[in-house]
């Protein structure tokens, strides 16, 4: 019996909806905790609707699941009626391919398209909804702008937003080409969502006039292993992974030793822990120069070849190294069994050079996905931004630093972050001691700055020193940014006389701060700040000064009574009370306004540099 065609039924089906819910359902079906994604997407959509600049930033730790969050955010934006969503990627084919594939596999509708696919489609093809991926380079952006000329209210989602997009000519009264083109793409009616692990540059550059009070914190998922694992504040405690420190680092013997330990570790996991063989990767990151990558590849292939050609003396030497490493790393395992696994699988070792000259036709579309149990990935700047490394088991990181470490760049280079929990105790980071120390300081300063964002009252304070630069100097807008303000504040709380009662019990002990935190909450006095002071001051008496509270009700002119802020700060020489605390370097003080709103302020007297964007008060 013929069925009657009901066009209204199919028109209703063609009007897609609930795409956000479908993406959340997909993740839950895969046993993924979606709470952090749902929170970030809900906040982002709400803030985008009310921010005065149609521009906001979503920030979260490196490799913490931001791609899945962006997939869900795209679904939500489509549900809300946004017709054109552009995802910008760094100028890397690998990164674009990796992200585009993940979006497509998610089942998002409409299917995301590359710029090339959009350009190859007929000029008459003008779908109602379009999700397109584009690299951040001059040529691609210009082509995309031309193709989308008739579309309005474009939403630009900028992955690794602090890279390439900020205006590095901000102090010259000019605009860099990428910044200009991205602004042109957004247009007067569009929206901008910057996504990054390192938002300092976006703030200090005033990129598209983003408002820090509307920033969204994307919390990592429960299985995430990040800063707290790899760079804990207290390094005297035992680390949950293998850290191999080098005196200088980078010589061929140290690289070969690290390679041997990786081979043995992969062998152990596949012989003793895994039900089925798994592929693992080692990341070698020694230089940003392409010719050095080739030299690293040749050295690694030489070592691997020595394990294959048993007719040469080098075979005996390297097999002994493998056997010794097996006994040292896994004394309860059968060293002969592990050595046999390495020798028999050595011919399967896959070296991959990951840079802009990589031959894609030869290597395929997923170079960061390990294709054998013994995959070695060699790379420079490309591996530092956005690329995810599944089953990364080892990282040999000896990248030389001639001057200061740039905080945002080195935070992004923490490619060992991610869901490493299943094999975390077997993961190895091989790194020179000085580089690890500086890297650790980068993360400590970064976390303190992020804690200052949570209050959403005024701009965050970013921290650097003589070894760590906060961001590229050319990108810092000197018209609105104040250097060496020297203090930072946190979330607002209700003042009461009990505050001074707590402080006066002991003004020089960390325990007083812990008691105060219980009273006013973690947002107002972050535990991380207390831990930082405790670690830095140690048991040395007199380094901490906790001052009694002061009202700012009578402060004049540049003081913002509502947000409790002013350009020059509140803790000057009189507030330091030098006569009472002559040796103090860590100063904590509460200030409150006439309405009883209060904030905790922290000041360090030493070599730290505190930088804040005061565009709201200047």
Description of the molecule:
The termini are far apart. The protein is globular. The relative contact order is 0.10. Helix 12 crosses helix 13 and helix 18 (498-505) packs antiparallel against helix 19. The longest helix has 22 residues, at 252-273. Strand 20, helix 21 and strand 21 (586-592) form a beta-alpha-beta unit. The strands form 5 sheets. The protein has a 7-stranded parallel β-sheet with strand order 3-4-2-5-6-1-7, with helices on both faces. 38% of the residues lie in helices and 17% in strands. With 618 residues, the chain is an alpha/beta fold.
Please render the helix and strand layout as text.
Elements: H1 7-14, H2 19-29, H3 35-50, E1 55-59, H4 66-79, E2 84-89, H5 93-105, E3 113-114, H6 115-120, E4 130-135, H7 138-147, E5 155-159, H8 177-186, E6 191-196, H9 200-205, E7 216-217, H10 227-230, E8 242-246, H11 252-273, E9 281-285, H12 290-308, H13 313-329, H14 335-345, E10 350-354, H15 360-363, E11 375-379, E12 392-397, E13 405-406, H16 407-412, E14 428-432, H17 433-453, E15 461-464, E16 468-469, E17 481-483, E18 487-489, E19 493-494, H18 498-505, H19 510-520, H20 527-537, E20 544-551, H21 573-576, E21 586-592, E22 597-604, E23 609-613
Parallel strand pairs: 1-6, 1-7, 2-4, 2-5, 3-4, 5-6, 8-14, 9-11, 9-12, 10-11, 12-14, 13-16, 20-21
Antiparallel strand pairs: 15-23, 17-23, 18-22, 19-22, 21-22
Helix pairs in contact: 2-4, 3-4, 7-8, 11-13, 11-14, 12-13, 13-14, 18-19, 19-20
């Amino acid at each position: 019996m013929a069925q009657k065609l009901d066009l209204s039924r199919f028109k209703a089906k063609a009007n897609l909806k609930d795409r956000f819910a479908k993406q959340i359902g997909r993740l839950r079906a895969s046993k993924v905790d979606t709470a952090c994604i749902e929170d970030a997407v809900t906040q982002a959509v709400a803030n985008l609707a009310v921010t005065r600049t149609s521009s906001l930033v979503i920030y979260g730790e490196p490799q913490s699941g931001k791609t899945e969050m962006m997939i869900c955010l795209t679904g939500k934006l489509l549900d809300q009626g946004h017709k054109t969503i552009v995802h910008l990627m760094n100028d890397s084919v690998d990164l674009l391919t990796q992200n585009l594939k993940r979006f497509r596999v998610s089942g998002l509708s409409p299917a995301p398209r590359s710029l090339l696919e959009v350009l190859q489609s007929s000029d008459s093809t003008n779908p109602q909804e379009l999700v397109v991926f584009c690299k951040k380079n001059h040529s691609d952006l210009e082509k995309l702008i031309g193709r989308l000329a008739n579309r309005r209210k474009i939403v630009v989602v900028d992955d690794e937003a602090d890279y390439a997009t900020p205006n590095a000519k901000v102090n010259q009264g000019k605009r860099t080409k990428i910044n200009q083109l991205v602004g042109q793409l957004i247009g007067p009616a569009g929206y901008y969502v910057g996504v990054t692990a390192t938002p300092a540059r976006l703030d200090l550059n005033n990129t598209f006039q983003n408002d820090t009070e509307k920033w969204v914190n994307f919390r990592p998922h429960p299985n995430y292993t990040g800063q707290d694992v790899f760079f804990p504040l207290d390094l005297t405690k035992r680390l949950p992974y293998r850290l191999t420190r080098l005196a200088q680092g980078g010589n061929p013997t140290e690289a070969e030793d690290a390679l041997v330990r990786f081979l043995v570790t992969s062998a152990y996991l596949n012989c003793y822990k895994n039900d089925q063989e798994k592929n693992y990767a080692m990341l070698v990151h020694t230089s940003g120069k392409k010719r050095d990558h080739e030299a690293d590849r040749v050295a690694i292939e030489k070592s691997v070849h020595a394990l294959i050609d048993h007719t040469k003396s080098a075979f005996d030497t390297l097999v002994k190294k493998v056997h010794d490493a097996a006994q040292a790393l896994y004394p309860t395992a059968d060293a002969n069994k592990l050595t046999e696994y390495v020798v028999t699988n050595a011919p399967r070792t896959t070296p991959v050079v990951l840079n802009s000259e990589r031959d894609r036709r030869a290597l395929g579309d997923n170079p960061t996905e390990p294709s054998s149990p013994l995959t070695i990935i060699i790379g420079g700047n490309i591996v530092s931004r956005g690329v995810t490394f599944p089953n990364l088991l080892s990282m040999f990181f000896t990248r030389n630093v001639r001057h200061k470490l740039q905080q945002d760049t080195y935070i992004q280079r923490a490619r060992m972050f991610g869901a490493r929990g299943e094999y975390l105790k077997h993961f190895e980071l091989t790194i020179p001691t000085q580089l690890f120390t500086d890297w650790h300081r980068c993360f400590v300063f970064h976390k303190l700055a992020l804690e200052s964002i949570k209050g959403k009252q005024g701009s965050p304070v970013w921290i650097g020193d003589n070894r760590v630069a906060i961001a590229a100097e050319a990108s810092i807008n000197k018209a609105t940014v104040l250097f060496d303000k020297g203090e930072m504040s946190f979330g607002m709380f209700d003042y009461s006389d009990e505050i001074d009662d707590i402080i006066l019990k002991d003004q020089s002990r960390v325990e007083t701060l812990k008691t105060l935190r219980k009273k006013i909450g973690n947002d107002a006095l972050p535990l991380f700040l207390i831990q930082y002071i405790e670690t830095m001051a140690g048991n040395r008496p007199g380094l901490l000064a906790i001052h009694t509270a002061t009202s700012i009700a009578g402060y004049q002119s540049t003081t913002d009574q509502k947000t409790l802020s002013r350009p020059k700060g509140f803790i000057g020489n009189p507030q330091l009370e030098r006569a009472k605390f002559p040796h103090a370097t860590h100063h904590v003080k509460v200030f409150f306004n006439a309405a009883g709103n209060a904030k905790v302020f922290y000041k360090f007297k030493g070599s730290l540099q505190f930088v804040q964007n005061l565009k709201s008060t200047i």
